[in-house]
Write a structure and sequence with these properties.
alpha+beta; about 35% helix; 19 helices
């Protein structure tokens, strides 16, 4: 009784002066008050217990009235209360954390803030969330007084925000309760579904296995189809619609009754792999489905499960580009990306068919080399068994060695450029389509480029994949020959006449490289393919043939296409050995590693030319893509080398 009385008195004292002192103490977790503090030895010998002996307090037969007669005077109580606090209570309470929280709209951050003066939150509401319960400590906001950084939040604002906080808490509790109820309900449904077992009806005709794109001949017949769940929609307990994807196309499947109620059916998510049996039927008039038919299932099996929520938990319409490229392996399962990859396949085939029909021979040059083609600054170096080597920038030099043996040659191979470029049309690794032709003139080279682009585009549009191109780029049209031919000097004048300027606001001069943005602006303004010719020798590689009429320029060409810019770079090649040596010296290249290339000028040299086309850029033009990274499988850029 006495100790309880002391505790009440201590609390009363704390409610007055003690709290004001504790407000300035460092922040530490607030402890609970001790339930019944042990009576200190000093207190046991104090006058406070002179009227109630230890034996009296210990005896269970002592009446409560006798204890009451032992209550000390007020002065003694005050002294004893102070003694209690010095013995442990005050020490514990001094550790209580009621430090203020600071916020600042100017310098705060709700995500990284800590609520201190040095690192405040941005909003008072976030300060409340951080504290986590009512009552809240003092909250400071930006002061409106000059020379004062913080001031205590107004009562009106505090009241308003407290209501907002309370609504948030209420909503969170309601949501949590609802989720718990739904989880319990789902758990009950799952438990019930374990008792439902389906089996294939042996009395039905045997099902014919088929790919989705070849199903039309099997209408009104029983088939079985393998694939991945591309889309999934449940309608009540007894109906489920699945859009199945197998890589060749899409098929709508209808599952009903017990087929929708099994344990596997309730757990089914997008990207699960399944096998579905059923009868293929034409869709009713007025309705639509991929292929014009749908599969009415009579049995199905799970092949491989997908996590709950399916692919939508990883990728959705709100995903940013970093998330999408990080999960490229899942992104390519989408309809648009799969169309792009199929068009890419059709494009490579179109190029090969073009070359085959024109008697080119395909070769496969090495990609680990010890020579440069486009400048040393863009080489990926590697240690090749103790020797310095590189990933190839281009297979051109090797193709040149093949033309005396095979005539017109080409290759479709990977090339690498170690340039830290972040433009929409640059990759560190790209698919390079290159060709070399002997015994031609510069004009014949330009004709070959026109033919290459127009013929492959027409082949793609005439193939079964032509519709995919129009699905992605409805406005695409095969370009018409001849292309506009423009010299480098004419391009400089065009830029000047149309106010296409350098970054510093001045006009382009002879010898300036026209960067991507102004080059594309010029191309888009002209609106047709452009063969931009005869660049200055100082801008181009050591192997390019100078123009006989004007030796300070080369017989070189870039093909520029609207929306992309350059997709092809080509030239006539130097075929005189002395002139080639001069090119090596001009670029500071040792000819030692190029002996095999120089030999082409010793053993029956001839005028010849060639080019390199970036497949990804060609696809950008074909599909009107915004970025070259969209047109390859796994893009490699200056800041990405995975997955």
């Amino acid at each position: 009784y006495i100790v309880t009385w002391y505790q009440r008195r201590v609390r009363a004292l704390l409610r007055s002066a003690s709290l004001r002192q504790l407000a300035s103490q460092p922040r530490v977790p607030a402890p609970k008050l001790p339930a019944v503090p042990k009576v200190p030895e000093k207190l046991a010998t104090s006058p406070i217990l002179t009227k109630a002996s230890a034996s009296t307090l210990a005896s269970s037969n002592t009446s409560i009235d006798k204890v009451k007669t032992s209550v000390p005077s007020t002065a003694s109580i005050t002294t004893s209360a102070k003694l209690l606090m010095t013995e442990g209570v005050a020490d514990s309470l001094s550790k209580m954390d009621i430090s203020p929280i600071y916020t600042s709209e100017k310098s705060g951050n709700d995500e990284k803030g800590e609520g201190t003066q040095e690192c405040p939150f941005k909003t008072p509401l976030q300060a409340m969330r951080h504290w986590g319960k009512e009552p809240f400590p003092t909250i400071y906001v930006d002061s409106k007084e000059e020379g004062e950084q913080f001031s205590v939040i107004s009562q009106a604002q505090m009241k308003k925000l407290t209501k907002v906080y309370q609504r948030e808490v209420s909503k969170a509790l309601s949501k949590s309760k609802k989720e718990a109820e739904e989880a319990a309900k789902r758990e009950a449904n799952l438990e019930e579904s374990k008792s439902i077992v389906i089996a294939e009806d042996a009395s039905l005709p045997a099902a014919t296995a088929a790919k989705i794109n070849g199903l039309e001949p099997f209408r009104e017949q029983r088939v079985k189809v393998y694939g991945w769940v591309h889309r999934l929609r449940r309608q009540g307990k007894n109906l489920m619609f699945i859009v199945l994807r197998d890589g060749t196309g899409f098929l709508q499947c209808i599952l009903s009754d017990n087929l929708c109620k099994t344990y596997e059916a309730l757990l089914l998510a997008t990207e699960s792999s399944v096998r579905i049996f059923g009868t293929l039927k034409e869709v009713p008039e007025g309705k639509s489905a991929p292929g014009g038919h749908e599969l009415h299932a009579d049995y199905w099996e799970i092949v491989g499960r997908s996590p709950a929520g399916g692919i939508d938990n990883v990728l959705n319409v709100e995903s940013n580009s970093d998330v999408m490229y990080q999960n490229r392996h899942l992104w390519i399962r989408g309809e648009n990306m799969s169309k792009i990859l199929k068009v890419r396949h059709a494009t490579i085939k179109a190029f090969r068919d073009h070359y085959y029909d024109r008697d080119y021979v395909e070769v496969t040059p090495p990609t680990m080399v010890q020579c440069q083609v486009e400048g040393g600054s863009t080489l990926f170096k590697l240690n090749y068994f103790g020797q310095e080597a590189y990933l190839t920038q281009s297979s051109q030099l090797y193709l040149e060695t093949c033309i005396p043996a095979l005539g017109n040659v080409y290759c479709i191979a990977q090339s690498y450029r170690a340039e830290s470029s972040h433009t929409r049309r640059h990759l560190s690794e790209f698919t390079h389509i290159e060709g070399e032709l002997p015994f031609i003139t510069f004009e014949e080279l330009l004709d070959a480029l026109e033919d290459l682009v127009c013929d492959t585009a027409q082949r793609i549009m005439d193939s079964k994949h032509g519709q995919l191109v129009l699905d992605i780029n409805p406005n695409f049209k095969v370009p018409q020959k001849p292309f506009k031919r423009m010299d480098y000097r004419e391009a400089l004048q065009y830029c000047k006449d149309n106010n296409i300027l350098k970054e510093d606001g001045t006009n382009f001069e002879f010898g300036d490289d026209i960067p991507e943005a102004p080059e594309r602006k010029m191309t888009d303004m002209i609106g047709v393919p452009i063969l931009l010719c005869r660049f200055p020798k100082a801008m181009k590689s050591f192997y390019m043939q100078p123009d006989l009429k004007e030796p300070i320029v080369t017989e070189s060409v870039d093909l520029l296409l609207p929306n992309v810019g350059e997709i092809i770079g080509g030239s006539m090649r130097i075929y005189d050995e002395a002139e080639l040596d001069a090119g090596f010296k001009r670029e500071g290249i040792s000819p030692e590693n190029y002996y095999w290339y120089v030999d082409q000028r010793k053993y029956g040299t001839t005028p010849h030319g060639g080019y390199g086309l970036g497949l990804e850029r060609y696809l950008m033009w074909l599909l009107n893509s915004k970025n070259v990274r969209e047109t390859c499988l796994y893009p490699r850029t200056a800041d990405r080398c995975k997955p």
